[in-house]
Amino acid sequence: MLAVAALSRGAQAAAAAGGALELTAVLDPLSKEAQRAAPPPLGLSVTLHLNPSLQIDKFPLESFYRYVVSLEPSFDNAGRSLSPQLDRALFSSLRTPQVLTLHVDAPEAWLLECTEAAYDMDNLRLAELGERRRPSRRRDGDRRTVSAVYELASLLITGSCEDVGSRHPPNGLQLLLGTTAQPHATDTLVMRRRTGEPRRRPSVGWTVFTLRTAPALLAAGHSTRAFRGGMQRIDPATLTDAAAVRVTMADFTGANILLLAQKRPGLES
């Protein structure tokens, strides 16, 4: 086993001040977990133990990995916070004939979109660079350089819905997701074997779930005609006709909720 003691700038200051916290990690240097390891921004003294596997049948890593998000805030000369769009990953001297795919290792609740790219980032063959170029708002200064910009397009709100009478998901129940100003931003369906994943633009604040009230759907016997909704941990006897559930989007980690639904009297069948 190889032991390496490493101190970041914040950790050096903490060690000089007699900091009491120390982080010790044991990593296989050829593992995916080791690829994701980044310096902790907490000002800790860090001791890293490298524990490689002694028997390797094939090379365990098949990807190049870079950590993008800055661990410390950056400011310009005027003291203004720099835009997070300046964060970037740089892969240099990639000399490989294989087809490469650029994948963003992001939180599960993030839906990212590639907004600028001159090449197909899912099928990138560096040996053929420049032959399959696509129009782009951004031009690469060098034919041997490929650049792409990714944007956080939506956040996922996931969860489950249960009919308090049958204790089963109300299959086909239609839900609307929106805000007070925009009640119908997107929608989803409750399915028996799958959790609906409504999407919304990435902004914090209040999000409201409601049951669909479109007249055409009411005639079909769905949603608010047959169901009334409520929130988690509410006694089914207290469910009201105000079928709206407020969800707090306090950060960018998404949300997971439980919805309770109950059929109106006389519409149980």
TrEMBL record:
One Gene Ontology cellular component annotation held by this UniProt entry: endoplasmic reticulum
GO molecular function, one term: UDP-glucose:glycoprotein glucosyltransferase activity
Record PANTHER family: UDP-GLUCOSE GLYCOPROTEIN:GLUCOSYLTRANSFERASE, UDP-GLUCOSE:GLYCOPROTEIN GLUCOSYLTRANSFERASE
Name of the protein described by the UniProt record: TGF-beta propeptide domain-containing protein
Organism superkingdom: Eukaryota
Coiled coil: none
GO biological process, one term: ERAD pathway
Organism expressing this protein natively: Emiliania huxleyi (strain CCMP1516)
